[in-house]
Amino acid sequence: MTATEPAASGAIAADLSPQPAPGAGPPRTPLAARAAAELVGTAALVAVIVGSGIQATELTDDVALQLLANSTATVFGLGVLIALLGPVSGAHFNPAVSLAEWWTARRGGAGVGRELAVYVPSQIVGGILGAILADAMFGEPLVKWSTHDRSAGNLLLGEVVATAGLILLIFGLARTDRLRFAPVAVASYIGAAYWFTSSTSFANPAVTIGRAFTDTFAGITPASVPAFIGMQLIGAAVGLALVAAIFIRGRTDAE
What we know:
Helices cover 65% and strands 0% of the residues. It is built from 9 helices and no strands. The longest helix is centred in the N-terminal third of the chain and has 29 residues, at 31-59. The chain is globular. It is a multi-pass membrane protein. This is Aquaporin.
């Protein structure tokens, strides 16, 4: 989801020319510290999603109220995590965001690829640990594969839409120099996408993997994970294409 104080195919490359990575942490922040922030942030995000889902199902049998509780907790939790960890790592918490940032800044040197190689595993491990932590807090089996099938085609379309919108938002904010609004804007978008997308907006490969480890309200069966991730990556590409089409840099008269 997330993504970031975050950061953000050849026509896209032409418009998305190299620039300072929109979600990169301060230059002097060691890579190990950024990796730790991504691991902890993703773990906390998944713990919020899974934990609030468990709590909601224990408090009410009304599915609408369960989703409302789940989405509300996610909005607040994600906003806080972006505000807290954005200055350290960019608060991606999302391989799709990290991959999109790498694509836009891939000519920026070896450091960009090295960051991607560290961020993505940290986010995936964090997602798994977050689900285990939530299960532990609520007395659920620490690891129990989800039986919640999410393989329907309309759900996969929902993931394309949710991820494309997320990438468009993050990189649009970066293009217009308004990343200071990211904690509120990104959290608000994810909260809304819980309701307007058929998939309830996973929009995040690391979160998707983590949620396969819990057989609770927020879970997703492992068999559904590959297709969800594939659609999220397609959505990220669509989001970058929209950024290139919408946020076109102006040219001077001399050009």
